[in-house]
Structure formats: C-alpha cells, structure tokens
From TrEMBL:
SUPFAM superfamilies: NTF2-like. Gene3D superfamilies: 3.10.450.50. It comes from the Bacteria. Residues 8-134 form the SnoaL-like domain. This is SnoaL-like domain-containing protein. It holds the Pfam family SnoaL_3.
C-alpha cells in the first residue's frame, strides 16, 4: 500500500482522486500508520490508521449506497516545507452529485490543516484537522461559507 509522494502537491492531488474514485486503499496510502485526525464528520477523532480506515470505509460505503459521485476541490492552498516536515492549510470543497442523473445534491466547504512528514523520500500525512465556523445562534457548523 505504500506509495511514493515526492511533492506535497502530489498528496493533495491523490487525495482528490481517491475520494472521487472512492478508492479506500489509495486514500489510506497517504496517511502514516500513527495518523491523528480531528474531523467535522462522524467520529470526532481518529488515532491510528485502523481507526481512520473504519471512518473511510463507512464514508465510501455510504456514497456507494446512495449512488453519489463526490467531487473534491482544494482552494486557497498554502504549503510550507522544510526538509522533513510540511504544513498545509486550505479550503476543501466537497460537491455531491447523483451518479445517474448528475443532479447536484449538496456542497460543503471545510477548512483543513495537514501536517506531513517526509520518510524515505516520500511525504505522508501525520496529522489532519478539519474545521467549520460555528453559527453562535444555532450552535451548528456552517458548511457553505468561504
């Protein structure tokens, strides 16, 4: 499952493609075995690749069950790197379409921060944090702001 990602941008492009293809193995190949994730969806926190794999499986199975094609777009990407560490922050848009009719179902925009480390000439995600602004009147996350 290990792949070589020579540039941090390659990691983001592979993430986008893996989600759009619902390819669990490809997506998980981006992450370190000791990944630590704070998420806006489902499980609040994932520690370790097995925990994250369970969330990814549930996510992709739900998309398949509901016949949803999900498109991913990264915007406002900022990448800072030093020899073996990288820091990324960006906005990530997820747009769901009904597979058969191409009707747009929903779009959400999350804020993401990634921490990556370089091991044996390849980048891997060791920390991921997604967040949303909160509407103080309702206490709910606002998924469509930018």
């Amino acid at each position: 499952m290990t792949k070589n990602f020579y540039e941090v941008h390659d990691v983001l492009e592979t993430y986008k493609n893996a989600v759009q293809e619902k390819d669990e193995e490809k997506l998980l190949s981006l992450y370190a075995s000791d990944i630590h994730i704070y998420d806006c969806w489902g499980s609040w926190e994932s520690k370790g690749i097995q925990s994250w794999q369970a969330n990814v499986s549930e996510w992709f199975n739900g998309l398949r069950k509901n016949d949803v094609r999900l498109e991913v777009a990264f915007t406002d990407v900022v990448i800072e790197t030093v020899s073996t560490l990288a820091f990324v922050h960006c906005a990530v848009s997820y747009t769901g379409y009904q597979q058969q009719t191409a009707v747009k179902l929903q779009q959400t925009i999350n804020r993401f921060t990634y921490g990556l480390r370089k091991t044996q000439d390849s980048w891997e995600i060791v920390h991921e944090h997604s967040s949303l602004p909160i509407d103080f009147e309702t206490g709910k996350g606002m998924f469509d702001l930018k």
